[in-house]
Amino acid sequence: MRIGRREAVGIVVALAVFAGVVAAVTGGGAGTLTVERVDELPQGQGAVAFGNLDPDQREMFAEAVSTGEPVALPNESARNEFVDPGYVRYDGDIYRTTVSD
Predict the structure, then answer these.
(1) pLDDT tens across 90-101, in order?
(2) Cα–Cα distance for residue pair 13/74, rounded to 1 Å
(3) CB of 32 closer than 8 Å to CB of 100
(4) In this predicted model, what pLDDT tens digit does every residue of 15-66 receive, in sequence order?
(5) Residue 39, Cβ neighbours under 10 Å: how many?
(6) Contacts of 46 (CB under 8 A, 6+ apart)
(7) What is the superkingdom listed in this entry's lineage (predicted)?
(8) pLDDT at 29
(9) What residues does 36 pair with on adjacent strands?
(10) Regarding predicted confidence, which is higher, 34 or 74?
């Protein structure tokens, strides 16, 4: 039995959808973000300005600050600035950002 082009495309699409559902159900995100206000930056450390985060990162960071609870990160790129440098300047304060799996 030969599989036609339409059937092959249908199978690939179905597999992609299935993989997305599995990732969503099993927590396919990139971990959780926790923030903690600190008095000052450690020697030699830098901090990213809140305004330099992308809009989704700003939203997640602000939620973590306002609730004091960890916030789920949806993907790997959402965590980049929270890992390196690991500090954010926000509303006149400095926050240490921790990402856990």
Answers:
(1) 999 999 999 998
(2) 22
(3) yes
(4) 443 444 334 433 456 799 999 999 999 999 999 999 999 999 999 999 999 9
(5) 6
(6) 85, 87
(7) Archaea
(8) 67
(9) 96
(10) 34
Which strands, in side-by-side order, build the sheet including 48-49? 48-49, 87-90, 93-100, 32-38, 71-72
47: left (phi > 0), else alpha (psi -120 to 50), else beta?
beta
The answer to whether residues 60 and 73 touch, using CB atoms and an 8 Å cutoff, is yes
What pLDDT does residue 27 have? 46
- The structure tokens 């960890």 sit at 70
Q: What contacts 30, CB < 8 A, 6 or more positions away?
A: 73, 74, 75, 76, 78, 79, 99
Q: How far apart are CA 8 and CA 56, in angstroms?
A: 36
What are the helix (H) ranges across 1-101?
5-25, 55-67, 80-83
Residue with tokens 């916030």: 71
Taking only Cα atoms into account, the Rg of the chain, rounded to an integer number of angstroms, comes to 19
Q: What is the pLDDT of residue 55?
A: 93
